Amino acid sequence: MRQVVLDTETTGLEPELGHRIIEIGCVELLNRRKSKSDFQRYINPERDIDEAAIEVHGITPDFLANKPLFGDVEQDLLEYLKGAELIIHNAAFDISFLNHEYSRGESGFNIEDHCAVIDSLAMARKMHPGQRNNLDALCKRYGIDNSQRTYHGALLDAEILADVYLTMTGGQTALTLSMDTTTHDNADDDSSGNDNSPKPTKIIKANEEELRAHEEWLDRLVEQSGTCVWRQTPQT
After folding, report:
1. Catalytic annotation, pick one of 89, 152, 184, 214
2. Is 226 among the domain residues?
């Protein structure tokens, strides 16, 4: 399964008023694991950038002056996105800007015609009703490090959203981090005299309340994705 976590930065909030994309950042997930095939471009919007927008992302017209136009990168982006399932936080915003940019050219490319789209903001609102569900709030809720996010940036935000999405939909990130830490700890040189012989594994069985909570969590996975691998696997 190929998924692309996507984010954009723009000159303002409304493409209908002539605002443009100035950065595109994409992170590829293959079977729920990050690949090394990221896509990131800065784009000269050929117009001013709202001061309020600069305060959010820190990208200035001077920085973009020698960057390519959208028309120079649109074919590469099209090939990168085509056929992927897109994961976007507040998808309507980014999709409207992307479709607006493509409408200015000759490709006639429309995102929804070629890509399935998952709105992680809508997903978070269903999972956490009545709570803040912006990216910073979700990072805090799921214990994801976003300390580098002093400014919004399309690629950085896509990286963070990938971690948030994987955790929201099954905890893959937390599991991988746990495995990596265990591997690193066990790889230490044993010349210190530590006893590295195998220890018996302590098995802690879930109680009835925990089993109920687990089933409710699986119900949410089915509601969001339509399937649940744990319920397709025979239980022992």
Report:
1. 152
2. no
Residue 236 domain-assigned (yes or no): no
Active site includes 184? no
**Is 105 domain-assigned?**
yes
Percent residues over pLDDT 70 in the chain: 75
98 part of a folded domain: yes
> What is the number of alpha carbons within 13 Å of residue 65 lying toward its C-beta?
4
Q: Are 40 and 155 in contact (CB under 8 A)?
A: yes
pLDDT of residue 184: 39
Number of domains in the chain: 1
- The CATH number of whichever domain residue 6 belongs to comes to 3.30.420.10
How many alpha carbons fall within 13 Å on the CB side of residue 233?
Answer: 6
Residue-wise pLDDT tens digits, 150-165: 678 999 999 999 999 9
Convert the pLDDT of each residue in 65-117 to its tens digit: 999 999 999 999 999 999 999 999 999 999 999 999 999 987 788 999 999 99
Quick count: other Cβ atoms within 10 Å of Cβ 105?
13
d(CA 106, CA 13): 24
Contact 46, 64 (CB under 8 A): no
Whole-model pTM? 0.72
Q: Which two tokens stand for residue 199?
A: 């220890």
> How distant, in Å, are the alpha carbons of 10, 50, 58, 88, 204 from that of 54?
9, 6, 5, 21, 52
Question: 161 is in which domain, residue-wise?
Answer: 2-172
Q: Distance between CA atoms of 154 and 91, rounded to whole angstroms?
A: 14
